[in-house]
Amino acid sequence: MSAVLVCGVDEAGRGPLAGSVFAAAVILGDDHGIVGLADSKVLTAPRRAALFDEIQSKSLAWSIASANVAEIDQLNILQATMLAMLRAVQGLPTPASAALIDGNRVPKGLPCPARAIVKGDALEPAISAASILAKVARDNELLALDREFPVYGFAEHKGYPTPAHLAALQAHGPCVVHRRSFAPVRAAAGAGQRSLW
Question: Residue 130's CB: how many other CB atoms inside 10 A?
Fold first, then answer.
């Protein structure tokens, strides 16, 4: 009889005004030996980075996926998040026999049975591991976007609607990685600012 391989699934980046939304799926073994798994939001950036590498080396299987800005604007952020989660589960090199999803919704079309767990990133180690992979992957994307579009300060706020980011949007208008379906971006685009990108 084959072992039950349960993957944890979580997302990162629903709230920001720019960049993709990321999701990850992780299957942990019973004896994974990874110490300090927790909701990625309560960990420091250096601790997340260390765990990012450890999760990838010690888990039975892992997958990171995303939905890009065009998909977010076309589908809406909720549906794009569900799509990223679906892609993460589908991308596991070892198929999961069940999935635990952080939150209160289960993506449609998953290849295995699944259930949603509110605050699962603080309750289930596999979901905690997925939250860390998704968060670090997304932060890395925003660091790369900061080098491409330095006027917005993506490295500092990671695309979230901080005062500095909103001020940069007003000053420069949105760029191609801003989510036009989000109200602050629409407002900046309609305020007479034109994007240079």
Answer: 38
3-class secondary-structure state, position 41: helix
Q: Between β-strands 21-27 and 61-67, what pairing exists: parallel, antiparallel or unpaired?
A: antiparallel
> CA neighbours within 13 Å on the CB side: how many for 89?
29
Q: Give residue-wise pLDDT tens across range 67-91.
A: 999 999 999 999 999 999 999 999 9
- d(CA 166, CA 64) in angstroms, rounded, equals 29
CA geometry: angle 124, 89, 10, nearest 5 deg = 40
* Alpha carbons 193 and 130: distance in angstroms, whole number: 38
pTM of the entire structure? 0.93
Side by side, the strands of the sheet bearing 6-12 are: 61-67, 21-27, 6-12, 98-102, 114-117
Please give the backbone phi and psi of residue 117, each rounded to the nearest 5 degrees, phi first: -130, 115
